[in-house]
Give the backbone structure.
Amino acid sequence: MRRMTRLGEVLFLSSGIVLGVAVTAVAATAAAAAPEVLSPQAAKLIAPVHQVYLTIEGEQATFPPAKTVGDKLERLYDLDQAGRGIEQNVDLSKLPKAQQKLAKEAMDAEIAKHDLSNQKALKALIPATGWFKVSTDGERATLTAFLIVQHAGNDPQLMRDALPKLKTAVDAGEASAQWYTLLFDRVAVEFDHKPQRYGTQLGCVQGKWQLEKVDDPANLDARRKSVGLKENEAEYLKHFSATC
């Protein structure tokens, strides 16, 4: 199932990632049964996803070495967001359905490759105790740490380990409550297969975005308010399109 969550003005898709699109040579006698490969038209449409990483990596290679944890995290921010930002604006609608699927898988594979690299870099920076702090590392740096963890669907343990540390940072005013609720609900729904607590996770059901099952829905808005979320559930849902 495809899932979506929202953070500010950026949409984060939590769909399953297919790691690669294979182009395999086959015997002529088996050509009729050969799997479809990415067409030149589709490859051209998605090429900007690959190119944006090359551009950022080239630019960052010219920078002096990052001296602080905050600086290192801020550089990872661009690598986390670049491919996702481009992917959201790639229009695959004119491609045949099979090509749309292959193109989406290829973009997701490119993003996944960089996510793995970002996760490795983040793990080397995580404090021995606690979590990153807005007051010392900066808001964008701490946001980056959250984003990398939130996108680590391939590494549930990283997500689980970050939750209590992030909660402590939130309680100390060193991280956003929104980040914690998004991560908490994703772990609950996707890995623990339990109802979510804060109503941040939506699932694509028969072409429509629907809220995933919520624990104690009657008190959902009160729970959202208690952790500092500014929008009630009805206001939150307005940010999503009806169809998926």
Notes: Residues 7-31 have pLDDT under 50 and may be disordered.
